[in-house]
Amino acid sequence: MQIFRTLCVGFLGLAAANLLAMPSVQAAGKTLEIVQKRGHLKCGVSQGLPGFSTPDNRGKWTGIDVDFCKAIAAAIFNDPSKVKFTPLSAKERFTAIQSGEVDIIARNTTWSMHRDTALGVDFPVINYYDGQGFMVRADLGVTSARELDGATLCTNQGTTTELNAADYFRSNGMQYEIVAFEKADESVAAYNSGRCDAYTTDHSALYAQKLKLSQPKAHIVLPEIISKEPLGPLVRQGDSSWNDLVRWTHYATVAAEEFGVTSKNLAKMKLSSNPSIRRLMGLDGSFGANLGLSKQWAVNIIRSVGNYGEIFERNVGVQTPLGIERGVNALWTKGGLHYAPPIR
Amino acid sequence: MQVLVLAAVLGAMVWLVGNVQSNLERQNINSGFGFLSERAGFGINQTLIAYTEDDSFGRVVVVGLLNTLLVSGLGIFFATLLGFSLGVARLSRNWLISKIAMVYIEIFRNVPLLLQIMFWYFGVLRNLPSPRQALSVGDAMFMSNRGIVLPWLEAGAGAMWYGVALLGLAAGFFWLRRRTLKAKLTTGHSTRFWRPLLVLALALFGAAALMAGVPFALDVPQLKGFNFRGGLTVIPEFVALLLALSLYTAAFIAEIVRAGINSVNKGQREAAAALGLPERVALRLVVLPQALRVIIPPLTSQYLNLTKNSSLAVAIAYPDIVSVLAGTTLSQVGQALEIIFVTMMIYLSLSLLTSWAMNRYNQRMAFVGNNT
Questions:
Q1: What's the predicted TM-score (pTM) here?
Q2: Residues A220, A287: one domain?
Q3: Residues B108-135: what's their mean pLDDT?
Q4: How confident is the model at residue A14 (pLDDT cuts 50, 70, 90)?
Q5: Is B30 within 8 Å of A118 when comparing Cβ atoms?
Q6: Does A333 touch chain B (CB under 8 A)?
Q7: Chain A contact set for B11 (CB, 8 A)
Q8: A212, A138: one domain
Q9: Min CA distance, B2 vs chain A (Å)?
């Protein structure tokens, strides 16, 4: 009996240690192979942020971040539906990617130096330029964030938001009280019921959460932007070819917008004599093969989700309930920040 | 054989730790506890000790731990008080009282705790007025959706002498109590207890007043801008969590108390009645001391549950240890293994400490019970 018990303990220890050893195998640089073998992409998204990643009334995930993962699935499998979405809270996300639970996280995550260098993750690219702002009740009579001295702020826990708010109020010599909730839904509910004077988070998310309030029109977003929030996908560190694939998936959509290639005019564009367009479409060169993909990789992406402009306008643009202008998220040719290196 | 088992377990543990470390290194993830001395940089809205954004993550741990201790300590106090009253009421011969207690118990122990916390927080918060229309008691105490604001004594220099006086009074209390008990056991007579205590209190605080004068000022809250400034603010998250934890756990304690009282032999009550003891006195002096022996072990579990359940605070943004350490700190630092480990160790120590104290109390009750 005693020997049996000893053996059991030994085996349990072995099993546990091996479980922990697993992720390091994945980190060795074979993410694409693993995804191809599995047959679908595992993508970590938010728990529900309109415009970025949220289930629609039929339970299907939609949003900019969701489209990002669909674009990768389209590039790999020529089928944007081969994605399994995992909703993650802000504090769960880094552990989920570190442990290999997901292949990529597209969860409106700010690229910061600490996260890039200390958490074993890489940020391949920025897919949305954002900044932190404040939302207040219109009848409060506040028109600037500078008037928020002594205010109570509701926000989400586990974000850069808490730190930015602390920095902003301190550097302006203002007092504040912060109430940080684990989930965005609860912080919005608390703000809605009057627990806080202001709700603070990324500007884009303010517009999105405003829609969830009982009277969206009774609230205003203040003009100040108090921080830089470059949002983008993140992957595990140590697999540069997977990093490349994610980065160029985004650049393909940006380049497509720059050259006027949309999901509607693909057939016509295939006849184009513009060498840049011909390379993007996989007619010249072997860019797809270098990523481990087919020649048609960019065409597959654009056919499934469209170019960056189409993705933006469909999810958060002026025609959507969020009604966000392109602003800094326009192409560099139109005064924005989105700029794709050349595909050549 | 046992040595072999121990060696195997230890070996497995060493291997596990080493494996985790090398894996973290290979994945370029920071490890170790160095982050505890780094600047935290975020605000916390209820701190029992001085705290600013410039303090370290180590201090954040202490702030969170104290918040957990505060809500669970007070929760245990109120749950015990309410639970014992309900348990006795449940056995009352008065039909109405007994049924009210029953309905209470069945409602509160059968609704999940998280829902109760949400109910007290969002349900009650929504109906409270904004600070500008706050309900007030004599323009000194205010209640609004920002919490309850009370006037508070602001301690100045010299307040320490009053602390010393208070400590002296506590020492005097215990010494006097021991003296009275000893006198009662040896001579059978009761000696004076309250009068010397009062004299001692007057002397001690008189001395403190002579040394330091009156270093206290009343800090009355005032509406300034968005919110009240000054006074003591009890945040709504704390009130909701304390209410939910106390009301929920009280229902379980009531059932434990009922079982304990029922376990005391009927003959004991009859004997007490035959001696002419009124029912209330019989309950206090005869039934409860015996019932306690049955009550204490499961009561300990309830105390442990309450402490652990206080981690549900995270749902309503009460800054307890889970919220500030396994929540905000975890996402700022990103070292899940270390932070979850520290959090688990804290809860484990709290629980072991609670059960150690309760076991000692239990031993004392059992000993007295067996000797009489």
A1: 0.82
A2: no
A3: 90
A4: very low
A5: yes
A6: no
A7: 13
A8: yes
A9: 8
